[in-house]
Amino acid sequence: MARVTAFEIPGLTIWFWSNDHEPAHFHVKRRGEWEVKVYFLIDVNEMIEVINGKPNSKTLKQIITLTDEHRLELLIQWQTLRENEQGE
Hints:
The model has no long low-confidence stretch (mean pLDDT 93). The chain is an alpha+beta fold. It contains 2 helices and 5 strands, in the order E-E-E-E-E-H-H. Strand 3 (26-30) and strand 4 (34-38) form a beta hairpin.
C-alpha cells in the first residue's frame, strides 16, 4: 500500500495498491464507515465507485475536486508504482 502524495483530506486514508489493476485508480476510506475507488482519469461525474458504506456529499465533492486538480500528480505516482512493481 502506498499513500497518495498529491493531496490529503484529514480523517481519511487515501492510497494506491502498488500491484493494483487497470484502469488507474486509488482508494479512499473513513475507517469503519465507508470506502470508495476513485478512477482519476475519467469524467468527474463517473470517477467514484462505492465499495461499501457511502460518504456524505460534502466529502464526495472534496474528493472529486482535489482529484480533478491533481490528476497529473496522481498519474505520475500510479505509473511509478506500476513500474516499480514490474521491475522496469
